[in-house]
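Lab meeting notes turned into a lecture example. A postdoc, R.K., suggested we walk through two folding results consecutively so the class can see how the record format repeats. The first protein's sequence and structure tokens come next.
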Amino acid sequence: MSAARSSRQRPTELAPPPADISALRTRRRQARRRRRLARVDVGLGVAGALMLLIASPGLAITGLIAALVLAACVVSFLVQRRRSRRVARAPRARPRAGSGARRRA
């Protein structure tokens, strides 16, 4: 008897297929777009770093500029993360206390 699962058995922990395939396609398209933009960002960063190393008069100045750019990136990341958490925590539309059907005592 083999420890491997036979191909006929379906694992029970798999999630059911999404009801809306278009939503799945949209999420995949957005994920591809984010990965592509991340690659472009890394490429531009590497090109900028090479130009900075070639054009700057010394490594100390290059290090200072790199530290400033890194600090700006960290601040940008933290602001974006905080903003996305606020959006996720935002209360959904709740009915007001006086707008529902009133009960009589």
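The second example is placed directly after the first for contrast:
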Amino acid sequence: MACEDTHYDGLGPTVGAFLKEKVTNMINWITKEVGKENLPPDVAEFVAARTYVELTLFAEVLNANHSLIVHRDWAGIVRQMKLESVPDVFITALHTVRSHEHMHDKFWRYLEMFSRAV
């Protein structure tokens, strides 16, 4: 599902718009897989309220720590997110996915995509 407020730079969606759409898709997927009751309240609304700049900074944190994604280092990515003051909602979503092994591959592919977007 595309974001209603997608902005274009003449060549396609901006990085921020792309990230907003894909982070929203990821949260919707996680919610569908684990149930809304197993995630922080209003997680979808939290993501919807994030600006393009905030999501781009999140992707930059992931990009700067790309080796953690390549090695699927759960503890390392959580540690780095905390050091970079990434909102707890994202960290809680990560912990939720970690406890559901069937979700791991798709989750790491999402992080890889976010990392490469910037």
